[in-house]
Task: inverse folding
C-alpha cells in the first residue's frame, strides 16, 4: 500500500468521474449525430490514453459539449467516415504544437474571446437540443434554431409524443438544477446520472412514447476512416474544419487546465506536455473514427472534488467506461433522447458566463463587447468565423489600448509654439493627433518635438510630415520637426 499511498482516494474518485462521464459521453454523441457508443469510445481513450500521459495530473478528458455543434456540422457536411480523418489530423497538429512548445501561447488568447466562444456554443447547443426535448426537427442554422423555437413549442401542444418528450426533458433539467440542494448523502450520486436514471425509470414505468438511444454495440460502432476519406483533405473546407477543431479543442483543454490548477495544491500543468497528451488522444480517436476529445471542466472538477490525488483516477474511470461499453451496452437502449437533450441544455446554459458578462460590463465594456460579438457571430455565421471575428476584435482593442499618445502645447505668446508628442503614436490615434495639430495657429512658427515618443509607425510619420508641409506658410518659418 505504501507504493500506492493514494490508491483508495483515486479509486473512489474514479467511480464518481465514471458516473458523471457516462451520461455526458452518450449525450454528446447523440447530439453530434453519431452512434452513442462513439461517445463512450472517446471517453475511454480520454481516460486511458491521455490519462496515462504527462501534462495535467487531475483533469479528465473526453467528448465535450463545447465541440458538439462543430462536430454535428462536420458530420452533416462531410459524412461520418471523414470525421475520423478530421480528428486524426487535429491530434497530429496538437502533437506538433506541443513538441514546438506552442501550448503556452494559448494562454495569450483573450479570455473574453474564449468565454464568447463558449457562450455562442452554449446558445446554439441549447437551441438545438430544445428541439430534441420537443421531439421536433431542428433547422440547420443557428439563427434558424432560435427563431423557430416558438413555432415548435406551439406545434408540440397537440402531440402526445411531444408532450411526453417535453415532460421528460424539462424534468431532467429540473433535477439537475435542484440536485445541489439535496442532502449530502443523496448527492453522492452525481446529478447527471440521477437525472438520466430518473427519466429512464419514468419512461419505462409509464411506457412513454419517446425516442430512445439506438444501440449498435461497441465494435459495430467503430468505423476507422477509409483511404478514400483521406482524399477529402484536398478540400479547403475540410482544412478549415481541421484548423477550427485544433484551435478550439486546444484552447478549451488548456483553459480547463488553468481552471483545474486553481482547484488543487498538487503539481501544476505542463501546458506543452498536456497539448501532446490531448493530441495523442485525438490521434487514437481519429484512427477509431470516434469523436474529438478535450479536457472537460465538469469531469475534472468532479475528479478534484472527489479527492483524486494522481492521474490513476482518470485512467481507472476510462477502464470503467470500457467495461460498461463491453458488458452492458444494452442499458443504453432504455435511455430517452429528451433526457439526454435535457442534460445538454443544462450543460449549454453553464457555458454562458452571465456573471462574468455583468462584471465585465461594469468594469471593462470593451471586453464585454468582444464576448457578446463573438457569441452572436458564432450563432449568426459559424463557429470558425465567429472565433476569428472575436480574435480580430481583441487584437484591434489591444492595439487601441496600447496607443496612448499625449500632445502637450506650450505657447508663451511670443516666439515659436512648442508641441511635444509622447507615448505611442500609431495609425489608430492619427485622427486625434492631426485634429490637435491642425488647431495650432497658422501665423506662428511651430516646433514639433517627437523625442518623447516610444513608438512612431510609418503611417503617423508620413502624416506628420505632410501636416508640417501644409501648415507652413510664406509669412512664417517652416514647421521644425525634431526627429524621434
Result:
Amino acid at each position: 500500500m505504501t507504493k500506492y499511498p493514494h490508491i483508495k482516494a483515486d479509486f473512489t474518485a474514479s467511480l464518481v468521474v465514471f458516473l458523471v462521464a457516462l451520461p455526458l459521453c452518450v449525450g454528446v454523441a447523440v447530439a453530434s449525430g453519431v452512434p452513442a457508443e462513439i461517445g463512450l469510445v472517446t471517453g475511454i481513450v480520454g481516460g486511458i490514453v491521455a490519462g496515462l500521459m504527462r501534462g495535467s495530473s487531475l483533469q479528465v478528458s473526453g467528448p465535450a459539449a463545447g465541440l458538439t455543434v462543430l462536430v454535428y456540422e462536420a458530420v452533416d457536411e462531410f459524412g461520418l467516415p471523414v470525421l475520423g480523418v478530421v480528428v486524426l489530423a487535429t491530434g497530429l497538429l496538437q502533437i506538433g504544437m506541443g513538441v514546438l512548445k506552442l501550448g503556452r501561447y494559448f494562454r495569450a488568447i483573450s479570455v473574453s474571446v474564449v468565454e464568447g466562444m463558449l457562450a455562442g456554443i452554449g446558445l446554439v447547443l441549447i437551441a438545438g437540443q430544445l428541439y430534441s426535448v420537443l421531439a421536433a426537427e431542428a433547422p440547420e442554422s443557428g439563427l434558424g434554431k432560435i427563431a423557430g423555437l416558438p413555432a415548435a413549442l406551439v406545434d408540440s401542444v397537440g402531440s402526445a409524443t411531444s408532450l411526453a418528450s417535453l415532460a421528460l426533458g424539462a424534468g431532467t433539467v429540473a433535477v439537475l438544477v435542484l440536485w445541489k440542494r439535496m442532502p449530502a448523502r443523496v448527492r453522492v450520486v452525481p446529478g447527471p446520472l440521477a437525472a438520466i436514471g430518473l427519466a429512464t425509470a419514468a419512461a419505462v414505468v409509464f411506457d412513454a412514447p419517446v425516442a430512445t438511444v439506438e444501440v449498435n454495440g461497441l465494435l459495430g460502432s467503430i468505423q476507422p476512416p477509409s483511404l478514400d476519406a483521406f482524399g477529402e483533405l484536398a478540400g479547403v473546407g475540410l482544412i478549415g474544419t481541421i484548423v477550427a477543431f485544433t484551435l478550439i479543442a486546444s484552447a478549451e483543454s488548456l483553459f480547463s487546465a488553468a481552471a483545474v490548477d486553481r482547484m488543487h495544491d498538487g503539481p501544476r500543468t505542463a501546458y506543452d506536455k498536456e497539448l501532446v497528451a490531448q493530441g495523442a488522444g485525438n490521434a487514437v480517436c481519429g484512427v477509431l473514427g470516434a469523436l474529438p476529445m478535450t479536457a472537460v471542466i465538469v469531469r475534472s472538477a468532479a475528479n478534484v472534488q472527489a479527492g483524486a490525488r494522481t492521474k490513476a483516477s482518470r485512467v481507472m474511470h476510462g477502464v470503467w467506461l470500457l467495461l460498461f461499453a463491453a458488458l452492458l451496452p444494452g442499458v443504453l437502449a432504455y435511455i430517452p433522447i429528451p433526457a439526454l437533450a435535457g442534460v445538454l441544455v443544462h450543460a449549454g446554459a453553464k457555458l454562458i458566463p452571465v456573471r462574468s458578462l455583468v462584471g465585465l460590463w461594469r468594469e471593462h465594456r470593451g471586453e464585454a463587447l468582444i464576448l457578446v460579438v463573438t457569441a452572436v457571430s458564432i450563432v449568426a455565421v459559424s463557429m470558425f468565423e465567429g472565433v476569428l471575428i472575436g480574435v480580430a476584435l481583441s487584437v484591434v482593442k489591444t492595439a487601441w489600448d496600447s496607443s496612448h499618445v499625449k500632445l502637450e502645447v506650450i505657447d508663451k505668446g511670443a516666439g515659436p509654439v512648442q508641441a511635444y508628442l509622447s507615448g505611442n503614436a500609431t495609425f489608430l490615434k492619427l485622427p486625434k493627433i492631426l485634429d490637435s495639430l491642425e488647431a495650432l495657429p497658422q501665423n506662428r512658427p511651430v516646433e514639433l518635438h517627437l523625442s518623447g515618443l516610444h513608438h512612431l509607425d510609418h503611417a503617423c510619420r508620413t502624416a506628420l510630415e505632410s501636416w508640417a508641409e501644409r501648415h507652413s506658410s510664406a509669412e512664417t518659418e517652416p514647421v521644425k520637426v525634431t526627429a524621434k
